[in-house]
């Protein structure tokens, strides 16, 4: 038997049996040391809409990005990067490749299509399955090619490497080179509907409500400006107002939305409201005029967060740089 097959067989023999799923005996354990709704949430799923410029998740909701090929498990706080939130193997297998040389840089300087995944670990499993773990923190990768891993073994920590401006794990699943949505593995890509079978050993709950976007602007924008792309700003004059806006999709009455901003000298605003009879898409914004003398130069961070019964169901970061 080839060495790789022996290694994979050994890895499988060391794992505990998982409940059978539609895709055979392959299943996934939760790959991040976090608790959904408390310090992390599922931000985006695999995009099931093949039409460019549109997105649908596996349940026909809006919690995906155009062309997105994985499941994004996002953290709520940048400070958690330094604390070290572990990324762990979701299934037994053999480490094929790793990368641990890219800086944690939310501005994504020097990132190309070839390095968009950032620091990463690629694991091969039995029967043609592979899992890819992206955006790991520089210096955190804890495995090397040829290592055998079991579910729960540490692979690295969530970081900001590659094409990302916020801390999250991008988990990508494939079989025989073809992308698979772990929430609907038995269905053809490009379709959505009832979830049915899943690859998850303990399937995380699905929340249809989400935040379509959150950005900085220098005014309270309207829907037409947001759709046209004229509302957001990446660079601001120190005398301009700073406003964070967000679009909530499929929110429910009683959901709480918070909008906040912070800069080099700390928090600049915080606004919390309970949504009352929200529409299918609802735009909310909040901000402040520039203080006397203008905003201090530097990077500013905005946050939009939706909670339901005290649990985080959606969260987005926004960024702007105030120039001197």
From TrEMBL:
GO terms for molecular function: metalloendopeptidase activity. Residues 68-182 form the M23ase beta-sheet core domain. Keywords: Signal. This is Peptidase M23. Pfam families: Peptidase_M23. Residues 1-18 form the signal peptide.
